[in-house]
Amino acid sequence: MKTTLPADCGNSPRISIVGDFVTAWAQGDSDAVAAWLTDDVDWKLVGRVQNGNQPASDLSCPYSPASSLDVMSIITHGLLASCDGYVETASGRIAFSHVFRFASTSKAAKIREVRTYLIGDHA
User: Fold this and answer.
1) Number of structural domains in the chain
2) Which of 35, 44, 65, 97 could bridge to 84 as Cys pair (CB 3.0-4.6 Å)?
3) pTM to 2 decimals?
4) What is the CATH number of the domain that holds 77?
């Protein structure tokens, strides 16, 4: 999968974490996604009714296999982070935005909450 991440100053460890997370999400790599989630993560796919029993790691990009990922921005501050961009698939282009809340400010903290917004013909 062709991946484009934003160039930045690189002084925030969370930028790398978010970049790795969204890349795994776009690839549909649920094991890599799950590795960054707390056991009690609250992941909402905004605008969709979700099965309460669905493991959060199963919310990896439902449009995989993605042929490309273009992340436009990654923003981090304290417990919070966000990223947005586009995923290209055989079915078309999907715009996404993820908003994250980490469990703590520790560099190794896992993601406790995610809100995902998807826009496109097949979102």
Assistant:
1) 1
2) 97
3) 0.89
4) 3.10.450.50
Decide if 2 is inside a domain: no
End-to-end CA distance of the chain: 20
| Domain encompassing residue 100 | 11-120
Query: Helix, strand, coil: what percent of the chain each, to 5?
Result: 20, 45, 35
Specify the DSSP element, H or E, that contains 38.
Answer: strand 37-45
Q: Give the contacts of 115 (CB within 8 A, at least 6 positions apart).
A: 43, 44, 46, 98, 99
Return the number of other C-beta atoms located less than 10 Å from residue 94's C-beta.
21
Per-residue pLDDT of the chain (123 residues; tens, 9 = 90+): 999 999 876 678 899 999 999 999 999 888 999 999 999 999 998 876 666 666 766 666 666 678 999 999 999 999 999 999 999 988 889 999 999 999 999 988 999 999 999 988 665
Maximum C-alpha span of the chain: 40
Structure token digits, residue 70: 């273009």
Residue 97 placed within a domain: yes
